[in-house]
Design a protein that fits this description.
The chain is mainly α. The chain has helices at residues 2-28, 34-59, 64-89, 97-108, 112-123, 126-152, 160-164, 167-181, 187-197, 200-213, 217-220, 224-247, 252-262, 269-276, 281-308.
Length: 309
């Protein structure tokens, strides 16, 4: 069973990275550059991803299992980030405040929106987006509070407006009532949302590929710090959470969705936040790129393990 799941998940990961290869090639030949990808991220994050999440919530069957799953997913997502924050605080203590902060940010925050969501949809289907959307909402809460504080090197003032009025949070806030009300959405509204939402996975991976194309591959495999962060992000945190979740009785598609989210590589916005808060943008890119390369091996193994335990 493990080998069958490993083969299935590895194939899905391979497919996603082949799509990312389109972005890599188009960047290299000058058709679609990283700068274009950054502009497309705004469309993805602000429009396409929220539509995909809202569509999933409003079309998901209302059942007792799904209602319970939402609350369990919130708890699992917060537990994963909290555990990562505790682990990260034990690392890089001798580094400068800002350098330490970018390592901590990379350790805790995964590429949940642009890699975990597409993979969850490929492996689980709509239930994968359903549960991973909750993880993305929690990701936004952590990123806009603890994350900014770490990567900026100073205590961040919590902007409750940004905390709530961001696309990830809004999509869940809008989607939850639609799920609970179990409304019969007209076809002329539901189908366009489905079509637009289906664009999320391929476009996200193509943009992902443009970041690969601009990574400094020489640095990716010589810096021991990058390996250490990848070890924590890709193996230690997801394995520990897998054990904790199983002890707490979490299983099935919900468990798989949470492990996909927690085992995803370093968030791509690590470099973007580093640039915004005058931190090391190159280091942020290297952390995201190296962990993304290594995740081709680690994610299939860990997600396949989650499917059989």
């Amino acid at each position: 069973m493990f080998l069958e799941n490993l083969k299935t998940i590895a194939l899905q990961v391979l497919i996603l990275y082949l799509i990312a290869g389109i972005g890599f090639v188009t960047d290299k030949v000058g058709i679609f550059k990283q700068a274009d990808g950054k502009r497309l991220i705004d469309l993805l994050f602000n429009v396409i991803l929220p539509i995909a999440i809202i569509h999933t919530f409003m079309t998901m069957e209302y059942t007792e299992e799904h209602v319970r799953g939402i609350f369990v997913a919130f708890l699992c997502a917060f537990a994963t980030h909290l555990f990562g924050m505790i682990v990260s605080k034990l690392t890089f203590r001798k580094r400068s405040l800002k350098e330490r902060g970018i390592y901590h940010y990379a350790t805790v925050l995964s590429n949940a929106a642009f890699l975990a969501l597409p993979l969850a949809k490929s492996v689980i289907g709509n239930e994968g987006i359903f549960y991973c959307s909750v993880y993305v909402a929690v990701f936004n809460i952590i990123a806009f509070t603890w994350g900014i504080s770490e990567i900026s090197g100073k205590e961040a003032k919590i902007d409750f407006k940004k905390l709530i009025l961001n696309p990830g949070s809004i999509s869940v806030i809008v989607g939850l009532p639609l799920f609970f009300l179990n409304l019969d959405i007209p076809y002329f509204i539901e189908y366009p949302m489905e079509v637009v939402g289906n664009c999320n996975s391929p476009l996200a991976m193509i943009v992902f590929g443009t970041f690969f194309a601009n990574a400094n591959f020489k640095n990716l495999f010589v810096k021991k710090e990058l390996y250490f962060v990848s070890l924590l992000r890709l193996i230690v945190i997801p394995i520990c959470m897998l054990g904790l979740f199983r002890l707490c009785g979490v299983k099935g598609d919900l468990l798989t969705a949470m492990i996909i989210s927690s085992s995803a590589p370093v968030a791509t916005n690590t470099a973007m936040y580093a640039a915004k808060y005058d931190n090391d943008t190159a280091l942020g890119s290297e952390l995201a790129a190296q962990s993304s390369v290594l995740s081709v091996i680690t994610m299939p193994v860990i997600v396949a393990l989650a499917a059989v335990v």
